[in-house]
Amino acid sequence: MSPRTLTPLDRALVEIERALATVFVPKPEALHPSPAGAIEDGELDEAARRHAAGLMRVNHVGEVCAQALYFGQAAVARDEALRARMLAAAAEETDHLAWCGERLEELGSRPSLFNPLWYAGAYAIGAVAGLVGDRTSLGFVVETERQVEAHLGEHLETLPPGDERSRAIVRRMKDDEARHADNALAAGARLLPRPIPSLMRFASDVMKTVAYRV
Q: Predicted confidence band at 29 (pLDDT cuts at 50, 70, 90)?
């Protein structure tokens, strides 16, 4: 029996389901165990705990945006292999989302209240990039993952010294994001022209500033 062809309504419902699951399930089921699993929680005073929670909330938002970006790109991808690649990357980002959500809970905090807004914006960017062309879509992946890799590197330096659980998660995420960027380059990404990377960096800075607090 051949697989059923999805109607436009079917596709819309799939995208709505994905959005709701990403935005409103802060700790989805991960496919792989957290890198922090075997690490004992260190002693953190209140200020250190709030700071760690702020950074992990930023990382959780980053994973919400990553999901949205990949889903938006996959929704309009012309090439079936590229669509499958985007969905596979989104599945891996689900692990990151789960790990960050779990760590936020451990720190006595919560995800950003603006997650629906972050998701909608990233999904729109992914869809627009995909409509421009598959190579441009891959170029957005490269630039996004490079910027995420950079801010995760900053977090490794600024997390409280006693928070090795968060640090283990961030280190693993950083490695995965670098691999996603390398894979997109190998798949034929067209690097984005100026000033797009600078605009993306500005938008990311705004998001990080807001998400750290709320």
A: confident
For residue 165, count CB atoms less than 10 angstroms from its CB and return exposed for 0-12, middle for 13-18, buried for 19 or more.
Answer: buried
Give the tens place of pLDDT for each residue, 178-209: 999 999 999 999 999 989 999 999 999 999 99
pTM of the model: 0.92
CA nearest neighbour of 95 among 30, 38, 50: 30
111: helix, strand or coil: coil
The pLDDT score that the predictor gives to residue 10 is 85
Distance of CA 203 to the CA centre of its chain: 15
Provide DSSP, 8-42.
Answer: HHHHHHHHHHHHHHHHH-SSPPPSS--TTTTSPPP
pLDDT at position 8 over 90: no
HEC string of 158-192 equals: HCCCCCHHHHHHHHHHHHHHHHHHHHHHHCCCCCC
Q: Based on the number of CB atoms within 10 Å of its own CB, is 198 exposed (0-12), middle (13-18) or buried (19 or more)?
A: exposed
Rounded-to-integer distance, Cα 183 and Cα 186, Å: 5
Collect all residues with Cβ–Cβ distance below 8 Å to 152 and sequence separation of at least 6: 59, 170, 173, 174, 177
Q: Is the peptide bond before 195 cis (omega within 30 degrees of 0)?
A: yes
